[in-house]
Amino acid sequence: MATDFCSGGWREFVAGLKGATGTITSTERYTGNSDITLANTAGGVSISGNVLWNEETITNTVEGLIEYSQGFTFTGAVVIA
User: Fold this and answer.
1) DSSP code string of 3-27
2) What gap in Å lies between CA 34 and CA 74, rounded to an integer?
3) I need a surface site. Which of 17, 73, 74, 79 has the fewest CB within 10 A?
4) For residue 71, what are the β-bridge partners?
């Protein structure tokens, strides 16, 4: 990312820079910045880092719990283990 004060507040991206985004659906709602670890319950790869929660869709069905589908962007390094 190459955003500076000359960009008028718009986020600018540069080819070749690393980054990651994702979406999670759960019955819990997340806001702001937080640390996250996504682990494969069958074993294998886990992904962790600090994220900024930036999108949200709320689903409320008559027969179920409220579900939050939320998007996030990693704010720094992504650790894959």
Assistant:
1) --GGGTT-----TT----EEEEEES
2) 10
3) 17
4) 23, 55
- When comparing pLDDT for 76 and 35, which is higher? 35
Answering whether pTM is above 0.90, one says: no
- Other beta carbons within 10 angstroms of residue 48's beta carbon come to 16
How far is residue 72's CA from residue 31's CA, in Å, rounded to a whole number?
10
Max distance between CA atoms of the chain, in angstroms, equals: 51
Q: Which two tokens mark 62?
A: 């008559």
> Three-class SS of residue 34?
strand
